[in-house]
Structures are given as C-alpha cells and as structure tokens.
Amino acid sequence: MNDFPRFPPGFVLGAATASYQIEGAAREDGRGPSIWDTYSHTPGRVAGGDTGDVACDHYHRYPEDVALLRDLGVGSYRFSVAWPRIVPDGSGPVNPKGLDFYSRLVDELLAAGVEPAVTLYHWDLPQALEDRGGWRVRETAERFAEYTAVVADHLGDRVPRWITLNEPWCSAFLGYSVGRHAPGAQEGRGALAAAHHLLVGHGIAVQALRAAGVREAGITLNLDHHLPATDSDADRAAVVRADTLHNLVWTEPILAGRYPDTEEETWGELITGQDFRRDGDLELIARPLDFLGVNYYRPIVVADAPHRESDPALRVATDNRYAEVPMPGVRRTAMGWPVAPGTLTDLLVDLKEQYGDALPPVHITENGSAEDDRVSPDGAVHDTDRVDYLRGHLTALRAALDAGVDVRGYYVWSLLDNFEWAFGYDKRFGIVHVDYATQRRTPKDSYHWYRHLIAAQRP
Fold first, then answer.
1. Which residue among the candidates 23, 108, 130, 167 is catalytic per the annotation?
2. Residues 128, 87: contact at Cβ < 8 Å?
3. Which transformation does this protein catalyse, written as a reaction (predicted)?
4. Contact 373, 383 (CB under 8 A)
5. Residues sharing a CB contact under 8 Å with residue 320, sequence separation 6 or more, in sequence order
6. Interval 272-302: pLDDT, tens
C-alpha cells in the first residue's frame, strides 16, 4: 500500500459513469426513448439480450452511490446527462422531472464534498432525432446546442467542469459505419457526415456553455496509441491510416483548426466533395477549450491489410486497409485488450509534441479494465489484476507529468459494474461489484486500493 504514485497539489482524482449504463428507469418520469433503447431491444444486437432498462438502478439509488464516492474520497465524479431525460423528443418541450433528477444528484454530490463533472452526450441520442437523420444531418448538432443551453442554465451555477461529447469516434464509426453500436448503421458517407456534425455540435455547444458562464468546457476523445506490427513501410503506412481514423479526425480540427492532410489517403473519394462541410465550420470547431479529456485503455498494434471495399456505402466500415493484431508478451484483460501502461505516457508525450501550446490541460476522463470478477466466499472481490492495471497506468500518468505534459486529473472507469454496451452485463469494469439481481453493491479490492491512493495524496 506504500507504492502509490504521487501527484501535484490540486490534481483531481475521480471516478466516472454514464447515464444509459447505470441509471435504469428507462420509461419513468417523462424520459423519452434513445437510440440505445431501440438498439438494445433489437434481437441479436446485445449479448444475452441485455438492455439498460434497469442497469444499476442508479436513478433510484443515487444516494447510495454518492455515499460510495464520499467514502472513496474522490475529488470529482464524472457522470453524463441523458438527453432524452431532459428533452424527450430531442427538441421541443423540456422535461422538468429530468432536470430535477440531475439537480438532486448534483446537490447530493456537493453535500458529500464531491465536485460534479458533467458529460452532455454519452451516446444516448433521442430516437426522434435519429428518425430525422441522426448525426448524419446538421439539425442534430443544432438541437444538441439547444439541449446544452438548457442543462447549463439549470446546473451551471453548481457544476464547474463540462464535457460536450464522450468518444465521438464511437458515435460516428461504431454507430454509423461498423454498426456495433447504436444506431447500428453500416455506411460510408453517412459515418463521415456524422463525424463532422458531432464536431460541429461540439463547437456550438461550447458557445452555449460560454454563454451560460461555466468555469471549464472541454471534450473527451478516446485517443489510441498505434504501433506498427513490423518495421515495414506497409505497416507504418497502415499506422498513419489508423491514426487518421481514430485520432486525427478529431484532434486536427479541434486543436489545430484544420482537417487531416492524410484523410484522402485514408478515405479516398469519400472525402471529396463533402457538402456537409461548410465555410466557417473549422473556426466553430476549434473554439478554445479549458481542457481536453482523454479516455485510454490500451495500445493497438496495426498491420497492413490491402483489402479495398468495392461498395462505397460500406467503405468506411471495411476499407481502412489495416488490421489490429495481438501484442505479444503482455497480459490481456477480459475485453482482450493488451495491458501496456507505458503507452499512456507515450500517447500524452506525443500529443504535447504534436500540438505544443495548442494542447490545453489534459484530464484522463476514463481509464480502467474489465476483469473476470467473482465474489469470493469471504464476501469480497479480490480483483488483483485490476489493481495492477490501475497502479501501472497511474504510474505511467505520473511519468507523463514528469515529461512536461500538463495533466490535471484522472477518473477511474468505472465506479460501478454496468451495462457495457453491446457486451451487455458480461463485462465488469467497476471498482464496485453490482449484483444485478439484488442491486447489492460490494466495493472490490481495487476500490480500497484507490481509496488508499487518494488518502496518500493528502499532506
């Protein structure tokens, strides 16, 4: 317990969750349907036929969960607001019961000495907006800014840190290209349009947050550290294409006010003549941020794969011309992801070298591991592998600080076991075990380790 990495005074150590993954109460108090309600209720989409209808029942049990955060000692709790709980149809009348729920949650957090951090979009798009085109169309970006203004006006006096979007890569490409996330589309041009309109929505939402006078506005990206499978020119070129799809499509417009100069190599004719791009969009997208949220779990080893999809409708999904290959010599989590903590240091240092003073302060807004957790006969959950994972990545984060990267905070993913999207309830990321049949919460060994780490930061 004495080998904890140490962080500077004021460094934020927190925990994170997301609305659809924990709240439940999917049809209560005026909440409208989201694309994840539709997707999870479609047979064959989610493992085990699971849905987020109940999840962790956080909507009713939030005081218990806030008590866990208080006992953990975190300085901040990152949660997301469910858009369809606030504006059930995506536009139009506001649901006061939805606003009241988040107001009560924020007050409970503040009373417990925990600073709230709000994510405005963690993938639960109102189904009514998807029916009108979803993120493929600019209207959704405009409706997102309106919803942002409503939430910020209601909570902005008590919430200091605001995140517009969580992992837009997943929304655009897993949702509209690969089809493994809601809404489950497999499109080429539609996915690129979705990526752009997510960026536009972010830019307009930052405007709305500034108008509401919030203290800090940012965005969270799931940036990946790509490694070539070999030193061959082909594999190194594949890394460039992978980096364009996963990272540069977001970081270049947001941090540098430009589109990636590698986009034509990555997407070919799909990137030409994009009528969804308008004059002035880059200036809107590149509005200054107070912080950049980075979600990081594992590196990706990339090899060249020469396949080219003949159908343009599917090209973004299948025509990236690279393949992910196993990383040798490292442990893998229950998700099959390699554990290589030092790559977090490398990613952050690379970001700093690439963007220099244009890179705002960084918060690691998610980091954690899914493990094969079991409640032991002694009633505890001895998740040693997760403790090792967290120790390694927090040590790597300390190394990034020592290398000159301005990192201000870290949020463990996740406070609770929860609905893990297309994996249903099969994968457990929480530092608190949830028995979904009884909703009993059991802090794992990782919870106690993280509590001790937080306590060790105090003077």
1. 167
2. no
3. Hydrolysis of terminal, non-reducing beta-D-glucosyl residues with release of beta-D-glucose
4. yes
5. 241, 242, 245, 266
6. 777 899 999 999 999 999 999 999 999 999 9
Collect all residues with Cβ–Cβ distance below 8 Å to 220 and sequence separation of at least 6. Answer: 119, 163, 165, 166, 167, 293, 294, 295, 365, 366
CB atoms within 10 A of CB 356: 9
Q: Catalytic residue, from 187, 366, 371, 420: name it.
A: 366
Question: Tens digit of pLDDT for each residue in 153-192?
Answer: 999 999 999 999 999 999 999 999 999 999 999 999 999 9
Rg (CA), the chain: 21
Token pair belonging to 103: 């107001």
The whole-angstrom separation of Cα 389 and Cα 333 is 9
115-121 and 161-166 as β-strands: parallel, antiparallel, unpaired?
parallel
Mark whether 366 is an active-site residue: yes
Q: Which pLDDT score is estimated for 1?
A: 52
Please give the structure tokens belonging to residue 14. Answer: 């927190």
